[in-house]
Amino acid sequence: HLGTNLPQKYTGKGVIVGVVDNGIDFQHIAFRDAAGKSRIKAAMTMTMDTTNKEYYYTCFLPEEIENLTTIASDATHGTHTANIAAGGFMNNVYYGVAPEADLVLCDLINPSTTAICRSVDFIAHYADSVNMPAVVNLSLGIINGPHDGTGDVERFCSEITKKFPHCILCFSAGNEGGKNISTQITFANDGDSVPQAQLLVINPNN
Question: Distance between CA atoms of 53 and 90, rounded to whole angstroms?
Answer without folding.
Answer: 42
